[in-house]
Structure formats: structure tokens, C-alpha cells
Amino acid sequence: MCKNKNKYTIKQFREEYPDDNACLDKIFKLTHGDMTECPKCGCTKSFVRVKTRRCYQCRSCYHQIYPTASTIFHKTTTPLTYWFFAIFLFTISKNGLSACELQRHLGVTYKTAFRMLRQIRILINNDERIMSGVIELDEAYIGGKNKNRHKDKKVKNSQGRAYIDKSPVFGILERSEEGTSRVIAYTVPDVKSQTLKPLVYDKVELGSAIMTDEWNSYTGLNKDYEHGICFHGKGNYVSGENNDIYTNGLENFWSNVKRGINGSYIHVSRRYLHLYMKEFVFRYNNRDKSEMFNELINCLAS
Ligand SMILES: [Zn+2]
Q1: By C-alpha distance, which of 246, 95, 120 is closest to 181?
Q2: What residue ranges define each of the domains in the chain, with the CATH number in brackets?
Q3: How far, in Å, is the centroid of ligand 1 from the Cα of 65?
């Protein structure tokens, strides 16, 4: 079944951004707003685009503004249309866009494609507001060469948590009645209590209901939160009087991450894992938005 939620089509995209000037206008608008007056001379004659450079100039005092200066496009020699198209492809791909794919689509080198994707991930500005209500907490291990990786979450409290070639990640999910649950995820050095708890206290409002498995790093959170524990080790994945003690929302998110990384990225180095997590959080939190492209482009404004 094709839900086709991403309603922003290639046709619309090409009409809106036919050339580098259109892209630059958009970047200028997002980074500088409407600019009704010149910050230097105060005149209201507005700015004109300088033909040969990525630059706008005040009609009165010739003060110049380079809108790409503080953005991911700073000093790039790649055409802005390529960048915008890369962002478009990034947002329409379901499980991620690999540098190989981007290289093929744009006809640039692998190195350029790789760098562009890294910059696009840097552009992402996720919603990291405090969470409240019903919250799921869960940790997972990403990457590594273990062929049976799907088993690593089956038996909690086993050596599954200590696979040395995998990187630990920690997620916090805020459930929503409307099905628009929101997630925050971190790459962490380990999943010890002293590592995870500060992240919980930093992001989850005191008194919220938190749902976890029996991993002992969560012990003690019941002092400040309502704590529901689901004993995965005993094969329980849903418990509680109202069947509301589970971490399936996050399990689902982790499986998206793993599918994306295994399917599109093959190998993700630890050095960049935090950027991939940023990407998957963005994909998850915007999964129902019809215009993920504009969500991402609008990050230029922040
Ligand atoms: Zn001026």
C-alpha cells in the first residue's frame, strides 16, 4: 500500500527551484527574513542580488550580504541546485540516502556526495523540547558486524549489551494520543545509570510516567517519576493494569534506525553516528508531515 504522504513532488520542486538564483533567494529569505531595511544605512530600498556572486547588495550604501556565509553552503563550489536536489532526495527517501546513490543522481564524486550528506545532517534541527506525560526510555546497540544483530535485544541483561563493536544509543519517546509521538536519541559512551539518568532529568519533566524494561540503570527513577517496568527478560512486552507499560514505540524507532543503517549506509563509523541519529530522529518526528523538504530547508532559519 502506498500512502504517499510526502506530497511535495519533483514537479513542484523544479518549479520552485529552477536555478541557483532561486535557491539563493530562498536561503537569503530564510537567513535574513524580509530585510525591510538595510542594517548599515537603514534605507528601505531593499537589496538586489549581485549577478556574479552569491551576494546581495544594498541599493543605497552598497553594503553586501552573503547569505550562505553562516550556513552549510558556506564556501561550497557545488551548485546550490545540486544541494537543494540532494535535500529533496534526502527527504523523499524512506530509510535514508547513501552517498553512492547521491553520487549517481548528481554526477559528483563520492567524496562530494558524502560531504554533502554530512552537511545536510548537520543542518537538521530537531525538536528537543522537554517531554512530559507518558514517556518511554530504551537503549540499543547500533552497528557492528554481528550477523545475528536482531537477537541482541531479545535477552535483556545478557552479554548483548556488551558487544564491543556496536555503539550504544539511548532514546526517549514521548507518547501521544494522536499517534504523533516524538523521539530524542543520543549516542552514549555506555548505558550505565550515571550516563542515562542525567539525560532523563534533562529532558523529561519530573512527575511524568516513564516506561522502561528491567535494565538496572533505570532503578531509582521512581523517586522522581512514576516508573512502569516491563520485564523483557521474562518475555513480557506489555504489562500493567492498563496494558500501558511497554517500550514498543522506541523498539519501533530502533528498528527503523537499524533498517536504515543496514539497508542504506552499510557502514556507519562511530565518529558520525550522532549525525545519523539526528537524521533518524528527524525522519521519525516528521514521518507524517506532508512536506518534509520544507521542514528541512526551514532549518536554515535557525
Ligand atoms: Zn544600505
Answers
A1: 246
A2: 10-123 (no CATH), 134-285 (3.30.420.10)
A3: 10
